[in-house]
RNA sequence: GGAGAGAUGGCUGAGCGGCUGAAAGCAACGGUUUGCUAAACCGUCAAAGCGCCUUUAAGCGCUUUCGAGGGUUCGAAUCCCUCUCUCUCCGCCA
């Protein structure tokens, strides 16, 4: 949630940020109008309430002192209460109006986020690793996986529906190896491992910014009371919802392996083959909760963490800074890591590392005290995938494929695979 | 699924119509004492919103908040209704 104070004090700054996102800027004025009206209403209302409190106190005093005046006090107070009740509902609807505009407003971008209308304007910062080349024509992972009998798309569909897949044998083993490798590396780097619920309530998805317009991203159960989490970012950010943290306990660094579920309603016809876009996928996520002063540093820490995993696996990738229009709703700055997929001759997103500033903290009321005597302040939250399991698995299949149809197992994963050097 | 108990500040926990934004204790913070540590003593210590003032900070004023929503009343943490959640016991089950 964008700060109300910022919108009031520096509306042009917020408009500018919205424009850089190619977002409608009139929402700022919509908010300011509702906010102004609400503040006027609440001021008048408070005056009435003050008077009612005075009358009540006078009533209590008059009970013994001058019983004769009780009736007129009672009448005056009753009259006032009726007016307060009316004005209260008017004020509440103005507040709801301002709030609903605010809830739908994306985060304010950091200054160094590049301008741009779409992904074409994203800035490639660097490439790491040579694009894998072969003496033969490389295959896409779905062909490699089906030939090896480790990916079974048809049976996934028969068990659930399209965009569900079955992993078998060495494929399932490779999947588990990746989970263990990611988690152990993240824990060694100082992240605390969490096993959260996979079903999350409305309040949690609202706080992380996944509800609103993004509600159709998620599968819901129990008549919409709960959602299948679309990313462990939801659970990890909400771990401290409503809390005031001690500053010497910050930063909080978390990592979790979870299944994730997405409807992918807007992606009909896109990436229909293979593991790239599934309704159910698995991911190891990292999240940091920290003081705003620490956000930039920890953003880098998270990117480094994701990069170190890709490097250890020997996967070529590039680091991209997303432009305004491509930066997600809750983020104020996002780096994407894109892995090279030789079967498709392209870089594909494999990790998205976002600095959300205090945007999520405001919604989730995650605060901390910089000093014991200070007022609580909103924390900053950051998140990144480190890494998604399915997309990493497919990247390994494509980058480590051999002419004979086998796939070499990257060295760091062999200890998790009984020392196997290849999947044949 | 059946029966009961409960939801109050960072934590424990009292309050059961006006004197309660809330006793007491713990924790925290400031200070006194002390050779150091500990102990003891004194003091401070909920959050949010709006307004005033100010460059900001601080400060001041008002309002709201005792799980959520509604009701009764001149007045609700306190009485009534609904909902949500938590805990205990029984049953069932991994």
Explain what this protein looks like in three dimensions.
With 424 residues, the chain is α+β, with helices and mostly antiparallel strands. It has helices at 4-9, 11-20, 26-65, 70-103, 141-148, 153-159, 170-188, 202-207, 232-238, 295-313, 359-364, 389-399, and strands spanning 123-128, 151-152, 166-167, 192-194, 199-201, 220-221, 226-228, 244-246, 252-261, 280-290, 317-321, 333-341, 346-355, 367-369, 377-378, 380-388, 407-408, 422-423. It has two domains: 4-103, Orthogonal Bundle (Helix Hairpins); 119-423, Bira Bifunctional Protein, Domain 2 (BirA Bifunctional Protein, domain 2, 2-Layer Sandwich). The protein is built from twelve helices and 18 strands. The strands form five sheets. It has an eight-stranded mixed β-sheet with strand order 1-11-12-13-16-10-9-4. A hairpin with a 7-residue loop joins strand 14 (367-369) and strand 15 (377-378). The longest helix has 40 residues, at 26-65. The two termini are 51 Å apart. The mean pLDDT is 90. The protein binds one RNA strand of 94 nucleotides through helix 3 and helix 4.
């Amino acid at each position: 949630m964008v700060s109300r104070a910022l919108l009031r004090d520096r509306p042009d700054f917020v408009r500018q940020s919205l424009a850089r996102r190619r977002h409608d800027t009139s929402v700022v004025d919509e908010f300011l109008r509702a906010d102004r009206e609400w503040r006027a209403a609440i001021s008048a209302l408070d005056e009435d309430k003050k008077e009612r409190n005075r009358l009540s106190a006078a009533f209590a005093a008059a009970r013994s002192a001058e019983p004769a005046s009780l009736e007129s006090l009672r009448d005056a107070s009753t009259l006032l209460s009726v007016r307060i009740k009316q004005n209260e509902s008017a004020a509440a609807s103005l507040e709801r109006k301002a709030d609903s505009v605010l809830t739908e407003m994306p985060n304010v971008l950091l200054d160094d986020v590049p301008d741009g209308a779409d992904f074409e304007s994203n800035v490639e910062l660097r490439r790491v690793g040579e694009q894998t080349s072969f003496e033969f024509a490389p295959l896409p992972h779905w062909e490699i996986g089906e030939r090896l009998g480790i990916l079974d798309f048809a049976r996934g569909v028969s068990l659930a529906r399209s965009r569900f897949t079955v992993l078998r044998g060495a494929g399932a083993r490779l999947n588990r190896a990746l989970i263990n490798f990611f988690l152990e590396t993240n824990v060694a780097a100082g992240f605390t491992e969490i096993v959260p619920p996979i079903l999350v309530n409305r309040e949690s998805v609202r706080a992380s910014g996944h509800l609103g317009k993004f509600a159709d991203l998620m599968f819901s159960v129990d008549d919409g009371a709960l959602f299948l989490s679309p990313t462990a970012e939801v659970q990890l950010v909400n771990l401290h919802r409503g809390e005031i943290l001690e500053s010497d306990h910050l930063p909080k660094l978390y990592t979790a392996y979870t299944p994730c579920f997405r409807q992918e309603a807007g992606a009909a016809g896109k990436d229909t083959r293979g593991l790239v876009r599934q309704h159910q996928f698995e991911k190891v996520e990292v999240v940091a909760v920290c003081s705003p002063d620490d956000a930039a540093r920890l953003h880098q820490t998270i990117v480094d963490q994701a990069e170190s995993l890709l490097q250890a696996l020997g996967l070529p990738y590039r680091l991209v800074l997303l432009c305004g229009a491509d930066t997600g709703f809750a983020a104020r700055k996002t780096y994407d890591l894109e892995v090279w997929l030789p079967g498709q001759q392209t870089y594909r997103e494999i990790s998205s590392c976002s600095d959300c500033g205090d945007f999520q903290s405001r919604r989730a009321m995650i605060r901390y005290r910089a000093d014991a005597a200070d007022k609580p302040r909103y924390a900053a939250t950051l998140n990144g995938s480190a890494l998604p399991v399915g997309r990493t698995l497919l990247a390994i299949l494509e980058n480590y494929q051999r002419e004979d149809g086998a796939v070499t197992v990257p060295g760091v994963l062999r200890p998790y695979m009984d020392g196997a050097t290849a999947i044949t």
